[in-house]
Design a protein that fits this description.
About 75% of the residues lie in helices and about 5% in strands. The protein contains eleven helices and three strands. The longest helix is centred in the middle third of the chain and has 34 residues, at about 95-125. The radius of gyration is 22 Å and the shape is globular.
């Protein structure tokens, strides 16, 4: 087959979740609703944490950062998908595809690192409660988030640079709803050995490394919880980790399925991708707030403040 350099092809086609025309309105409405709920839910978490001084602690600092990353993570894929459905066009430019892939990898990496940092935070809180505020000081918290950003930026930049060297065949259809790196590499006609090595190195770095850190943290947490004499004390300690553990299980379970299952079909791969790119950011605000009295109280206070200020502002506007 004759190779086609990418300079001759300026566009890719995103095939989406389904090519059935009758399903497009349903998919559009479903994903639009999930996207709006995701943005609103995570934004409320950020506003609740920032507006309540009682929540200015390491745990909620990392949670607000995770909420911000989840908004950005979802925004790299869903808006383009919705636009394509609305305009009945599957086209995405080469530059747009590389840009989407860069930011997708960036925020996926940040999700990984922040979940690991939050596991370490819970480890210190439960295993070393008397030294918690000394160890998790503001400087260390800021440094952990900064390192997470640097690692994620370098990783996504490296992945995109090795994709830029590829040449592609004339068939530029991506069987996905976004420019997923594995699908793009499979479209290349040139040698992809380096890309595969870098891609699997990234899986080990951003998947295996943080996962080992999380498992180690939770092994220590479980040991500490089992050493607590009272059942009430055990329940209280475990409840502080239950939300984080649920999110970790959902995120890692679906993302590792996509990248490690070489036998995955297009439909199963796309479905698993929806789980960790859409459902996980959607569920995070509910998982972290439904069982958390501090977040509930902060949200009620925030809603009360808005309910008081809005009528006052509207009244002033009417007078002017």
């Amino acid at each position: 087959m004759e190779l086609g350099n990418i300079t001759g092809f300026s566009e890719f086609l995103l095939l989406g979740l389904s090519e059935e025309p009758e399903l497009q309105p349903l998919i559009f409405g479903l994903f639009l609703s999930m996207y709006l709920i995701t943005v609103l839910g995570n934004l409320l978490i950020i506003l609740a944490v920032s507006s309540d001084s009682h929540l200015h602690t390491p745990m909620y600092f990392f949670l607000s950062n995770l909420s911000l990353v989840d908004i950005c993570f979802t925004s790299t894929t869903i808006p383009k998908m919705l636009v394509n459905i609305q305009t009945q066009s599957k086209v995405i430019t080469y530059e747009g595809c590389i840009t989407q892939m860069y930011f997708f990898l960036l925020f996926a990496g940040l999700d990984n690192f922040l979940l690991t940092v939050m596991a370490y935070d819970r480890y210190v809180a439960i295993c070393h409660p008397l030294h918690y505020m000394v160890i998790m000081n503001p400087r260390l918290c800021g440094l952990l988030v900064l390192v997470s950003w640097i690692m994620s930026v370098l990783h996504s930049l490296l992945q995109c640079l090795v994709v830029l060297r590829l040449t592609f065949c004339p068939d530029l259809e991506i069987p996905h709803f976004f420019c997923e790196i594995k699908q793009m590499v499979q479209l290349a006609c040139s040698d992809t050995f380096l890309n595969n090595m870098v891609m699997y190195f990234g899986i080990v770095l951003l998947g295996g490394g943080p996962l080992v850190g999380i498992l180690y943290s939770y092994s220590k947490i479980v040991s500490s919880i089992l050493a607590i004499p009272s059942a009430q004390g055990k329940y209280k300690a475990f409840s502080t980790c239950a939300s984080h553990l649920s999110v970790v299980s959902l995120f890692y379970g679906t993302s590792l399925e996509v990248y490690l299952s070489s036998a995955a079909t297009h439909s199963s791969s796309a479905t698993a991708s929806v789980m960790y790119t859409v459902l996980t950011p959607l569920l995070n605000p509910f998982i972290y707030s439904l069982r958390n009295k501090d977040i509930k109280r902060a949200l009620k206070r925030l809603v009360g403040m808005v309910a008081v200020k809005v009528p006052i502002v509207l009244g002033l506007k009417k007078r002017t």
